[in-house]
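Entry for the shared binder. Reason: the reviewer on the internal report wants the predicted structure included alongside the sequence.
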Amino acid sequence: MLAAGLAERGIDVSVLGPSSAAATFGFRALAGVVFSPIEFGDRPRLGDVGAVLRLRRLFGPSVGSTAQPDVVHAHGLRAGALTAVSLAGVRGRGRRTVGGRRPALVVTVHNAPPVGGKPRILVYRLLERVVARGADLVLCVSPDLEARMRAADAHRVGRAIVPPAEIAPPTDTHSSTEITPATRATSTSETTAGRPMVLAVGRLAPQKEFGTLLAAAARWRDLDPPPLLVIAGDGPLAGELRAQAASLGVDAEFLGRRDDVPDLLAGATVFALPSRWEGQPLILQEALRAGAAIVATRVGGIPDLVGDDAAVLVQPGDAAALADAVRAVLADPSLAARLRTAAAARGAALPTPADAIVAALAAYARALGPN
């Protein structure tokens, strides 16, 4: 989104990343965007030395030319740290780099510290320190990450804007009528056969806490009619979660990866987001725009997205609290209606991709400005 949006505004854009990213995100097909492969993973390795040297060459002035980047925007702590180390050895000769100053560095921090042993936490803190000291501006996707980067003595800290893609509204496949928040309460997914549907969407990975959602679902089996839990997404825990559902006797459908999420949201009675941490989750923003009745966890950037009235929030990892919240929405049509109305209002006010481009340009100007 950033690459395409900046190129459309006449800005020269180069994207540096793993070769797999070119195919995944279609960078080579973007007009005005140059893609260069830089191989690095999510953990430190010996190959990082080569990545740093290659980045240093790419960031410096071309041979016989003064051309070099004005701004380098890195996404994630790993990319940010590698970039900061690379730029430490770059001397500039362009208009931005009078007096030997390097290109400005903006880093967006997208994720919370990993769950795991002390070594992983120490590596994360080291990366935070490297980014804090090397970046001209650090953008964060949630308030807790902003607090962490300020504690790491980051020079400047701001809020990142991560908007969902613009998508067409779902339609009723039988009548070709656009589904709005006012009509979606009466729309029923064919999958549920008239039963309430509790929908969750996301990667089947530990961060999403779908195991807690399954444990919560075991607590609402007494409802009549019993809700159907539908989980869309794939990931490393697929087999484990299916086995857990079977062992708990939970009636759950695992749909795998889907490209019809707007239609699933339109047919859901409740949308559940049980994550142990989220920044500005795209699926939550899609649920808000869909006017869904939302139950989510009070973590990361979720409270900022939903405000005071667009979701019922519970603590992460608490299956009983999650079950009670879902049960309350299922049992109280007036509560569900209020949640849908508030969600639609919040969704209508969410930033757009165009807003994100404007914000990025403002961030670059800030990073290029006086210290």
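Summary line for the report: The first helix runs from residue 2 to 8.
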